[in-house]
């Protein structure tokens, strides 16, 4: 066995001596050609990317608003657990929307931007303060419901702009993604919130506002 190994070693030395430095060749192995990112992802237009980034920002903004509102309903001078859970579900929905959009951007090889949230904006509804302003729980629920309905319509319009941009730039994948994940959702939520608004108005006009609001809130828990 040792003699065989020694023989192989000597043969190797003889081969190297024969080849010599002048006859040696360096073989460079090139990696296979890879398509450029814009060809790989087909997502090189600036406008659709900016629209998706805007959708991400608006989803985070809505998540922040709805979460703040849900905790307002949990305060000791409000205690409407049904509405608290309802707006908590809205906030979770918008957070999931933001994560879906970010996941899509990563899958398509793009980056997304984070922006600060202006909590002093007029778009934010302040928490219910019965002791300071005399506002009733009823008026607060009515105001918040109208605000969220308007916000959902605004979000739908922004998704429509993204959809239009994807269509005009011939991005069928983005177009289908917006349709399947967001537009149907927004139409359903707008209908749901509008129904809630109608039921609240019906209770108010029947002069059973306080008791009716309590019963309606309890119905949201089921």
Automatic annotation (TrEMBL):
Fe cation binds at residue 94. One of its GO terms (biological process) is iron ion transport. It catalyses: 4 Fe(2+) + O2 + 4 H(+) = 4 Fe(3+) + 2 H2O. Its EC number is 1.16.3.1. Residues 1-24 form the signal peptide. It comes from the Eukaryota. InterPro entries: Ferritin, Ferritin-like, Ferritin-like_diiron, Ferritin-like_SF, Ferritin_DPS_dom. It holds the Pfam family Ferritin. One of its GO terms (molecular function) is ferroxidase activity. Coiled coil: none annotated. Residues 42-204 form the Ferritin-like diiron domain. GO terms for cellular component: cytoplasm. Keywords: Iron, Iron storage, Metal-binding, Oxidoreductase, Signal. It is an enzyme of class 1 (oxidoreductase). Stores iron in a soluble, non-toxic, readily available form. Important for iron homeostasis. Iron is taken up in the ferrous form and deposited as ferric hydroxides after oxidation. Stores iron in a soluble, non-toxic, readily available form. Important for iron homeostasis. Has ferroxidase activity. Iron is taken up in the ferrous form and deposited as ferric hydroxides after oxidation. Belongs to the ferritin family. This is Ferritin. It comes from Mizuhopecten yessoensis.
């Amino acid at each position: 066995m040792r003699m065989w190994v020694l023989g192989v070693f000597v043969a190797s030395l003889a081969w190297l001596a024969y080849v010599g430095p002048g006859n040696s060749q360096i073989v460079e192995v090139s990696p296979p050609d890879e398509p450029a990112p814009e060809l790989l992802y087909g997502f090189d237009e600036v406008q659709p990317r900016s629209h998706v980034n805007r959708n991400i920002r608006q989803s985070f903004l809505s998540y922040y608003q709805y979460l703040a509102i849900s905790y307002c309903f949990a305060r000791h001078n409000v205690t409407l657990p049904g509405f608290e859970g309802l707006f908590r579900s809205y906030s979770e929905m918008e957070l999931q929307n933001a994560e879906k959009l970010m996941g899509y951007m990563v899958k398509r090889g793009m980056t997304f931007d984070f922006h600060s949230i202006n909590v002093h904006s007029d778009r934010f509804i302040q928490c219910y303060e019965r002791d300071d302003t005399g506002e009733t729980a009823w008026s607060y629920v009515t105001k918040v419901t109208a605000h969220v309905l308007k916000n959902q319509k605004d979000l739908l319009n922004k998704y429509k702009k993204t959809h239009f941009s994807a269509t005009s730039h011939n991005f069928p994948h983005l177009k289908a993604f917006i349709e399947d994940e967001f537009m149907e959702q927004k139409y359903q939520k707008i209908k749901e919130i509008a129904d809630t608004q109608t039921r609240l108005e019906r209770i108010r006009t029947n002069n059973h506002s306080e008791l009716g609001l309590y019963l309606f809130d309890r119905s949201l828990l089921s």
